[in-house]
């Protein structure tokens, strides 16, 4: 195994290999797709209602080691967009980050240190889940602050701030860093994430990897 995922989508069935282990989502077949299948995704936004789970959640909380978390403001939108681009994410429009910081601020966070913006996570409450599931849209950490656990701390703080019972996200099979981040969240809550095919590559224009849905039961207690 070279550690890189192998996968092939047939209709809505997927098999892929990651970190030396075979993972299945309604599996019937397995074959390797060429590396050229990966392509940056320009995602559209699907707005969802946001309800503050905990109305008494502090606007800002210290996190130790000079790091603090707070809900974003529209004035953070420009810096969030710049950080998303620096981190190599599928960058949305600058307007999207400004709007997200207003309409989805209670399910999103920014992390700051003495040098400024260190990272952010954007999310929204999933409809038809009694607003107990938060979908993580994007998470980014500044390049010069990586390997410090900031991404994991953003997710932990998001669970506490929202009181979510479940965290959802989609990850492409080649994005093992994000997969490890969400599996780590599950491990800290004594849970194994469910991983299943969310969107096959046939749904996207051009060449785009399939998206795997991670669902992680969590507890804010």
Which features would summarize this protein structure in a list?
221 residues, alpha+beta, Aminopeptidase, 3-stranded antiparallel β-sheet, 11 strands, disordered N terminus
Describe the structure.
The chain is of the alpha+beta class and 221 residues long. It has one domain: Gcn5-related N-acetyltransferase (GNAT) (Aminopeptidase, 3-Layer(aba) Sandwich), CATH 3.40.630. It is 21% helix and 29% strand. The chain is built from 4 helices and 11 strands. Strands 4-5-6-7-8-9-11-10 form an 8-stranded mixed β-sheet. Strand 1 (7-10) and strand 2 (13-18) form a beta hairpin. Helix 1 (77-86) packs across helix 2. The chain starts with 6 loop residues before the first strand and ends with a strand. The model is unreliable at 1-22 and 24-56 (pLDDT under 50).
How would you summarize this macromolecular structure in one to three sentences?
Helix content is 21%, strand content 29%. The chain is α+β, with helices and mostly antiparallel strands.
Could you give the order of the helices and strands? EEEEEHHEEEHEHEE
CATH topology: Aminopeptidase
Share in β-strands: 25-35%
CATH architectural label:
3-Layer(aba) Sandwich
- Count the E strands: 11
Main sheet: strand order: 4-5-6-7-8-9-11-10
Rg, please?
Answer: 17 Å
Shape: globular
CATH superfamily: Gcn5-related N-acetyltransferase (GNAT)
Q: How far is it from the N-terminal to the C-terminal residue, by CA? A: 39 Å
Average pLDDT value? Answer: 79
Task: State the secondary-structure class.
Answer: alpha+beta
Largest sheet: 8 strands, mixed
Helix content: 10-25%
Low-confidence stretches: 1-22, 24-56
